[in-house]
Amino acid sequence: MQLISVPVIPSLTDVQWKRLIPAGLSTKKLLVISTPFPTESTEASTLSRMMIACKLEADDYTLLLFETESPFSWAALKSSGLPPVVLLLGVSPVDLSIRALFQVGIVQDFSGVKLILAPSLRALEHDLEAKKRLWGGGLKPALRL
């Protein structure tokens, strides 16, 4: 079992950040929060293949890129309404001001949604075991595939 240890969040970063969250998240099946990547990249291709495997069209999910220059908090996401499943790709819970421990690659109930924590898209490209764990323990049961 792999856990992520979450450090205490410094008061300078423990704020309700002001980045605007798109409306209509709760109408989607999935919210993907990822580290930034170029649109024409292997990471984009990996994400596209992942969504196809999940039988999701572009209208079924929202992709938010988590940039350290314009962060947002879990509270801001939650207040805008969340879909039933949230996938974090390379984004740590502490980045979203979450103080909890999570297992990597499996679906977990958190704050009224099914949360899946996974390595970044770049790391997934090279880690077959992480891909298998994410599919079998995370995406497949969360999306009921």
Gyration radius over CA: 14 Å
CATH superfamily: Uracil-DNA glycosylase-like domain
Mean pLDDT: 86
Q: Total strand count, please?
A: 5
Strand content: 15-25%
Number of helices: 4
- Judging by the overall fold, what is the CATH architecture? 3-Layer(aba) Sandwich
Multimeric organization: single chain
Trace the largest sheet across and list its strands.
2-1-3-5-4
* Total individual domains: 1
Q: Decide which structural class fits the backbone.
A: alpha/beta
Concise overview:
By secondary structure, this protein is of the alpha/beta class.
Characterise this structure.
This protein has a single domain (26-142), classed as Uracil-DNA Glycosylase, subunit E, CATH 3.40.470. By secondary structure, the protein is of the alpha/beta class. Strands 2-1-3-5-4 form a five-stranded mixed sheet. The chain has helices at residues 42-53, 74-80, 121-126, 128-142, and strands spanning 30-34, 61-65, 85-89, 107-110, 113-118. A hairpin with a 2-residue loop joins strand 4 (107-110) and strand 5 (113-118). The chain contains four helices and five strands. It is 28% helix and 17% strand.
